[in-house]
Amino acid sequence: MQYFEKIRELTKNIPIELIDFSQPRDFARTPTQASSNFITNKEQGDWAENLITRAINENSRNYVAVKYGKSDDLIAGEKGFDAFYQEFQNELDTIGKRPDLLIFKKSDFQKELGFDISHISHNRIIEYVKNAVAGIEVRSSAFLIDHYEEAMQIRTKKFAKIALDTKVKILSEYQDILQHQSRENYIDLLNGITEKTLNVTDFKVPGWRSTERLIQLNELFKQLKSSIKEIQKRDYLSITPKVEDIKVVYKWIETFNVPHFYFQVFFDKVYGISFEQILQIISNPDNDGVIFSVESDTKNQNKTTVKINSKSGTEIAYKVDEPNHESARKEMDRGRLLFYVTFKGGTAYLDIDNLTGILGIKGDF
To answer: What is the distance between the alpha carbons of residues 308 and 273, in angstroms, rounded to a whole number?
Structure first.
């Protein structure tokens, strides 16, 4: 079975409530105005892509990374952006979404095309692209993943203690009030709260206000509810394929039959996951809320995004040296100024065994 056939079979297992592959992709409206935050995020994404490209090309004797993803320095609001964006949308419908990078064997690398084929029409490079051993979509995250996980563990322990201590306080000091027939259900609720059930416990804060002790009790229930909500927040950093992108990535795979991967770049490590594994994860409802969640991403125009625990993937770089950063300025129409951050340098220290393992590369890298 060819790679694209394997992917096609996996798409049949995806719940249509999540992604309906039988329906065309949603129409995308042309953005009208960029923000400083948008440009900073774009600069960070470009840096992450360059970081992976340099790491591969500086460490491999037999493979080469080439820039492929459709991109441009134009941003919404600048002259020429509308035409660029429409061309990009047309290409999505024709061949799907280009991954940011392609990995070629050096024996298949065409020097005359160089290390950047992102601006070359797909009609000129169709057969060349089919020779790639992998396509990589590079995503970036403004976090140190090790520090984040340490902080989340501390947070969870803190709020679990607050919640359980609050439960004990309520049962020990307000038992007489709760034994009234209108409130006795709260005793059952509290008895059911344990360290194991904090992640799934939910209730409505009563709203009692008629006596001082009822007000005090009500405040304790508020504290209990607030602590439980903190515990139930997603506590992992994620690899983040947008739902709308999964369809067009699939179309690209059908077009070129090249294995596809997502690499998530943090400022201290890099994790990777195959598109095949992404489909396997989201096709199993038992993984929902455990390994992945589906959320509206406020940082990306509220687009629905699948957020997969990064640790479900493979550690591609065990260390990243942070880049240098500096402020920059762009003048838009009517003299509007946008100030943003640029990133330069940095090094990703690859785990070669993990990298070749996830990409399925046999022999000397």
So the answer is: 10
292-297 and 303-309 beta bridge pairing = antiparallel
| Domain end residue (candidates: 199, 217, 232) | 232
Q: Which of 186, 216, 232 delimits the end of a domain?
A: 232
- For residue 365, being part of any structural domain is answered with no
Q: Is residue 364 situated within a structural domain?
A: no
For residues 307 and 294, the answer to whether their CB atoms sit within 8 Å is: yes
Specify the pTM: 0.86
Q: Taking residues 334-357, what's their average pLDDT? A: 90
The residue with tokens 């096709």 is 283
* Cβ atoms of residues 260 and 99 within 8 Å: yes
Q: 118-158: per-residue pLDDT in tens? A: 989 889 999 999 999 999 999 999 999 999 999 999 999 99
Q: How many CB atoms lie within 10 A of CB 279?
A: 22
Angle between helices 3-11 and 275-282 (to 10 degrees): 20
Closest CA to 150 of 230, 225, 237, 233: 237
CB 110 within 8 A of CB 128: yes
Per residue in 53-79, pLDDT (tens digit) is: 999 999 999 999 999 987 767 666 667
Are 34 and 109 members of one domain?
yes
In a domain, 150, yes or no: yes
Q: Helix (H, G, I), strand (E, B), or coil: what is residue 363? A: coil
3-state secondary structure of 178: helix
State the Cα–Cα distance between residues 276 and 279, nearest whole angstrom.
5
Residue type, 106: K
- Give the model's confidence band at 349: pLDDT under 50 very low, under 70 low, under 90 confident, else very high: very high
What's the confidence (pLDDT) of residue 220?
Answer: 94
pLDDT at position 87 over 80: no
Q: How many domains does the chain have?
A: 2
Domain that holds residue 225: 146-232
- Token pair for residue 257? 């039959």
Quote the pLDDT of residue 81. Answer: 65
* Residue 218 in domain: yes
Identify whether residues 126 and 241 lie together within a single domain: yes
